[in-house]
Design a protein that fits this description.
Blueprint (H helix, E strand, L loop, with lengths): L5 H18 L6 H16 L2 H4 L5 H13 L5
Helix pairs in contact: 1-2, 1-4
């Protein structure tokens, strides 16, 4: 897989941070976090890269791995 552009990695990192915020006991602003998670999920799922001939399930795994490796903070 080609290295994911910074925008994809940033989107995935934001998704992971939002998911983590929802996973804590008694999260604050759950509705806003759920909406954010849905928005980010849609942006990731329907990104033009994934509709091209080069995507594979392994490419999505690699994107998540790269996002975890970056210390993104929104």
């Amino acid at each position: 897989m080609h290295p994911s552009p910074l925008t994809w990695i940033k989107l995935q990192a934001e998704w992971q941070l939002t998911y983590a915020a929802l996973a804590v006991p008694h999260p604050v602003h759950t509705t806003a976090l759920r909406r954010r998670l849905q928005t980010l999920s849609g942006r990731l799922l329907f990104h033009p890269y994934w509709s091209g001939p080069g995507w594979t399930p392994a490419a999505r795994v690699e994107l998540r791995r790269q996002a975890r490796a970056v210390e993104w903070r929104p």
